[in-house]
Write a structure and sequence with these properties.
This protein is an alpha/beta fold. The chain folds into three domains: 59 residues; 60 residues, no CATH class; 163 residues, Ribonuclease H-like superfamily/Ribonuclease H (Nucleotidyltransferase, domain 5, 2-Layer Sandwich), CATH 3.30.420.10. It has 15 helices and five strands. The chain has a five-stranded mixed β-sheet with strand order 3-2-1-4-5, with helices on both faces. The longest helix is centred in the first third of the chain and has 14 residues.
Length: 325
């Protein structure tokens, strides 16, 4: 989104016509005009008329196309489809990918949706605020590390099975805690690495025994093949990992210090949950059903990494349960 593109001026179009008449190729014309060869190729292809390329006709065609507006802007039905899903928390890539998967008649690319979001009309409608990052420019944020407590019999993530690392085997999870402004407001979040299915459970405190029991309660009802390992950070709340292993057989592995990116799946899931549950949230204002609804919405949103299937669909397939799309 950060690159700025400008249309050719009438003077450049006149020079383009002259260079074409003396038989120069697209690459040489682009070099002489100081433009990318793709720009020249598109200009000639889109604005050529029956008499060939004419600068005055090309300028009128380009201006008419600009006045006509984008495809999304012209179609009320398509615009409603896109904006409804943005309001549901879907990203432009998820919207475009799901349209492709469902073979919707009128489809658009993710880039077209981004252009609509950042257009004057999109900004006026507040569409930018519905994106996950909610900002005009995107990039990594630097995070300051902090000292982690020691964990008895801690096993490094580097000893985790290769299949878990590659997401090629079902049943490997990541775990984390989501904190809010009040210290007593805490959510335990869990995500299955292969299918991206996310679970969340309210905790009364960061007590390690309480956290371990919550993990057992969330995952204990699953078949053994669906709960093989769990990867966590080095917080003291996960110190009773051996309790989980003894209860349901899940081996625990821990990230390197100051390296939350090593379990990026759950970090991303927490970021998505923050859209509905920002840090200033008071969890007392939400029932368990409210939290379940938020998590359900997250799990029923299509993912590019899953071929635009939803985590629920992918999880059901791996459990051997058939679902209709």
């Amino acid at each position: 989104m950060g690159t700025h593109y400008s249309h050719l001026t009438l003077e450049e179009r006149c020079r383009l016509r002259g260079l074409m008449e003396i038989g120069l190729g697209v690459g040489e014309i682009a070099r002489r005009l100081g433009r990318h060869r793709g720009t020249i190729h598109r200009e000639v292809g889109r604005n050529r008329c029956v008499d060939g390329y004419r600068p005055d006709s090309a300028a009128r065609r380009a201006w008419a196309r600009k006045l006509r507006g984008s495809r999304i802007g012209r179609s009320t039905r398509l615009r409603t489809h896109v904006e409804d899903r943005l309001a549901m928390g879907w990203s432009p890539e998820q919207i475009a990918g799901r349209m492709e998967l469902e073979e919707v008649e009128h489809r658009v690319s993710a880039e077209s949706i981004y252009r609509h979001v950042y257009s004057p009309a999109g900004r006026h409608a507040g569409l930018v605020r519905q994106l996950a990052q909610r900002k005009a420019t995107r990039g990594r944020r630097r995070r300051n590390g902090r000292r982690e407590p020691s964990i008895p019999n801690r096993v490094s993530i580097h000893q985790r099975p290769t299949k878990a690392h590659l997401r090629s085997e079902f049943g490997h999870w990541e775990g984390d805690l989501v904190h809010f402004r009040r210290q007593r407001d805490i959510l335990l979040t869990l995500q299955e690495r292969k299918t991206r299915l996310t679970l969340a459970r309210r905790l009364l405190s960061k007590d390690a025994e309480l956290t371990a029991n919550a993990i057992v309660a969330e995952l204990g009802g699953l078949p053994a093949r669906a709960r093989r390992t769990i990867t966590q950070d080095n917080g003291g709340e996960f110190a009773r990992h051996e309790t989980v292993t003894k209860a349901i057989g899940m081996r625990a592995f821990f990230c390197d210090p100051h390296s939350p990116w090593q379990r990026g799946g759950i970090e991303n899931a927490n970021g998505l949950l923050r859209r509905d549950l920002p840090r200033k949230t008071r969890l007392d204002d939400y029932t368990d059903d409210d939290i379940d609804d938020i998590v359900w919405n997250l799990n029923s949103t299509p993912r590019k990494c899953l071929g635009y299937k939803t985590p629920i669909e992918a999880f059901a397939v791996n459990l051997g349960v058939a679902l209709e799309m």
